[in-house]
Design goal:
mainly beta; seven-stranded mixed sheet
Length: 114
Amino acid sequence: QVQLVESGGGLVQTGGSLRLSCAASGIIVSRNRMGWYRQPPGKQRELVAEITTGGNTNYADSVKGRFTISRDNAESTVYLQMNSLKSEDTAVYYCKAGLVRVYWGQGTQVAVSS
């Protein structure tokens, strides 16, 4: 059974940093496209960043230069380093695995106060 467990969310001030973790079980992260999505209050879920099986990364324009996605194959964990946080980054952040058959974590809340 596939499980994705996010952690690392919290309350941070504008300009601060957080690192989100997505611990995966039941899948091999290096063999799946892994991504971070977010859902701001009252809005639709959107792609934040993703990493392909080949290690290529893709970012939403709004986070380029501030966020970094990475993975630790040995730990079966995907990370999202978030720097220079802004109030508009406030959202529930979700981890996603797969491309055709997809799996989602339960989400972790990130709140950025101005």
